[in-house]
């Protein structure tokens, strides 16, 4: 087990493309950290630099206080699990797990003990004599996990390890991986582009875009205190509704208005906008923070329902506000129908205000 520190870590491909740029991060001993972001944001590049599989252009990788930036991969005491499993097809499950230990010249009795221990941990004790071709995708991924666990690395690196599995198995493996992490307490860096995977597994999430870190925080931090428009839009399903609004001072109160919506501000939100000098602002409201009300006076807009998407536990209501589809999440009951008129209000504690130019959150988070 170990700590990890990345200092201004950067990777340039060719002359212009920065795969990762100025990545600064401290990972605590035993922490489960997830790199999350859209395709091409630099997650894999960063992970590979930590593993030593990618040459660093600038910056440092520090494991347990020791600068390993130029140390070869096998001397870093990290284990990597890939999306493609990378188990050896000509070896049995037992041999796959045992092989790295043999290379390290462990005595065969100890190898046997470790193989059985990790096989039990990932629930493949029954499969030790089989070859990978006789296993399902999920079982093969467990073998890759067991092999990585067996060498007791200082740090576990996982690059989208669940993305080749079907949706149901992914969700199951998430829970199991989290339980394994709980048991081993190994410092883990996990890469994914799936936000619900990140939210459900991470102690902290590192959200990346264009090679840079946009926000570092717990799942609650990045969801409730999103640092900017990108993070607020990336985290959450359905995504946050964004509105470009004008700041209007009207009979002693501040309103945020556009053609369809009128939001009167009070309390904390009014204070934030009082010290904001521009006349346009971006408002972000998550679908569950828009509320349907019978009181028309409280409505920030009144509109016809376009579509209702039943989800069992809740309903997603879509409303067409002049070329912008607004999504609202409401409980499963009462049932709503298309063409029904609804008055929509909002949870004033939960709206997010962003600078129209910098797109950053306009409050302390
Ligand atoms: N070998 C390479 N040569 C040139 N550019 C590269 C190379 N590898 C990655 N890149 C570029 O670096 C950027 C970051 O890529 P990276 O693979 O780290 O993204 P990612 O977040 O892991 O994406 P994905 O989720 O699609 O795997 C991208 O713009 C990518 O095109």
UniProtKB/TrEMBL annotation:
Residues 4-235 form the ABC transporter domain. Keywords: ATP-binding, Nucleotide-binding, Transport. It comes from Thermosipho melanesiensis (strain DSM 12029 / CIP 104789 / BI429). GO terms for molecular function: ABC-type transporter activity; ATP binding; ATP hydrolysis activity. The keyword Transport applies. GO terms for biological process: carbohydrate transport. This is ABC transporter related. One of its GO terms (cellular component) is ATP-binding cassette (ABC) transporter complex, substrate-binding subunit-containing.
